[in-house]
Amino acid sequence: MEESRIVTIFGGSGFIGRHLVKRLAQRGWGIRVAVRDPEAAQFLKPLGGTAQIVPRKVSVTNPAEVAEAVAGASAVVNLVGILYQRGARTFERIHVEGAATVAKAAAAAGAKRFVQMSAIGADPDSPAEYGRTKAAGEAAVQAAFPGASIVRPSVVFGPEDDFFNRFAVLARFLPALPVFDVSFQPVYVGDVADAIDAILEDPATAAKTYALGGPRVITFRELMQIVLRETGRERWLLPIPLAIAEIEALFLELLPVPPLTRDQVKLLSQDNVVDAGALTLADLGITATALEAIVPTYLQRFRPPTDQRRRLEEKKEAGR
Ligand SMILES: NC(=O)c1ccc[n+]([C@@H]2O[C@H](COP(=O)([O-])OP(=O)(O)OC[C@H]3O[C@@H](n4cnc5c(N)ncnc54)[C@H](OP(=O)(O)O)[C@@H]3O)[C@@H](O)[C@H]2O)c1
């Protein structure tokens, strides 16, 4: 008898989740998406072929809800993560306890495969609590589900990303964009989805950790230059020392959705790139997609109206 191919995806309504739902549905998986707001996740249905949205609220902090969502699943993917803490939504609760709850439930339900989404920078000694709790989440998952595979992306880009879109919006309103002395290895969301797909298809990937990065390491300054070029804006690039950024973050943290937190500033003190010797996209048979091939396609919408752009080009020409 053919084994069931049902995958429960936690965090399937997020940026990476929606691409993963689409990819795994194309590969013939029966998709079950567990979310806190099933109504708001209905948009996934046309993407996911036969995708089912668990009709009741599922939070990774609730073991009973999680157990119900994984019943009968042959594979489980946990994408749930947060960038800042609010009230009871702490890094410890979501990244560590939540991940452990999902992994324990998957093991108890007899799932064969488990993929845990972590991040480059996951390290018990990370200066940031985000990085420390991502590492503790990995350890909790491995203890509960020993064959779990872990994926650690650098910053992920794609049409709905939080990084390029955010700076493209800022470039509209601000006279300058900030520059931090740090490098990233941005990876395409489609490649991240392909990586999880490849892991689920190959039992030899069990208990392994993959660091996912794009084809090249790019400085923050160059990333801002790309944003300005692709959105057709001329803005200053303002280097910000981390000590100053930390003071700014103290105030920005008070906003309902903080654009920068002190913990994120701590993350910026270390390059976010694939370590030499790590297993990577290439080990999964995937050729990393260049940022230049994708980012212009979705930053175009931030360009100023054509006449404004023409004026800009004329100004540049006159200055040559
Ligand atoms: N994007 C990147 O550049 C990047 C880089 C490295 C690592 N990662 C990791 O990749 C994962 C996905 O990132 P993303 O960019 O797709 O994030 P995202 O768009 O914010 O998605 C996060 C998902 O988690 C769900 N979620 C949050 N709290 C939950 C809870 N208590 N119970 C159940 N679901 C909950 C959210 O659903 P709700 O609608 O219910 O909030 C959402 O579907 C995260 O673990 C993140 O740390 C992302």
Gross morphology is: globular
Count the E strands: 13
Ions, cofactors, ligands: which are bound? NADP nicotinamide-adenine-dinucleotide phosphate
Euclidean distance between termini CA atoms? 72 Å
**Overall residue-averaged pLDDT value:** 95
Computed Rg: 20 Å
The helix count comes to 12
Structural class: alpha/beta
CATH superfamily membership of the domain at 6-158 and 187-213 and 274-284, which one? NAD(P)-binding Rossmann-like Domain
| CATH C-level category of the domain at 6-158 and 187-213 and 274-284 | Alpha Beta
Secondary structure: helix percent: 40-55%
Helices and strands, in N-to-C order? EHEHEHEHEHEEHEEEHEEHEHHHH
CATH architecture descriptor name of the domain at 6-158 and 187-213 and 274-284: 3-Layer(aba) Sandwich
Reading side by side through the largest sheet, how are the strands ordered? 3-2-1-4-5-6-11
What fraction strand?
5-15%
**What does the main sheet amount to?**
7 strands, parallel
Show unreliable segments. Answer: none
CATH fold call of the domain at 6-158 and 187-213 and 274-284: Rossmann fold
Quick tags:
single chain; binds NADP nicotinamide-adenine-dinucleotide phosphate; two-stranded parallel ribbon; 13 strands
What can you tell me about this protein's structure?
- With 320 residues, this protein is α/β, with parallel strands linked by helices.
- It has a domain at 6-158 and 187-213 and 274-284: NAD(P)-binding Rossmann-like Domain (Rossmann fold, 3-Layer(aba) Sandwich), CATH 3.40.50.720.
- Helix content is 42%, strand content 14%.
- The chain has twelve helices and 13 strands.
- The protein has helices spanning 15-26, 44-47, 63-70, 91-108, 129-144, 163-173, 189-201, 220-231, 242-252, 262-267, 291-299, 306-319; strands at residues 6-10, 30-34, 52-53, 75-78, 113-117, 149-153, 156-157, 176-179, 183-184, 187-188, 209-212, 218-219, 236-239.
- It has a seven-stranded parallel beta sheet with strand order 3-2-1-4-5-6-11, sandwiched between helices. It has a two-stranded parallel ribbon with strand order 7-10.
- Strand 1 (6-10), helix 1 and strand 2 (30-34) form a beta-alpha-beta unit.
- The chain starts with 5 loop residues before the first strand and ends with a helix.
- The mean pLDDT is 95.
- NADP nicotinamide-adenine-dinucleotide phosphate is lined by residues 10-11, 13-17, 35-37, 59-61, 79-81, 94, 98, 117, 119, 153, 155-156.
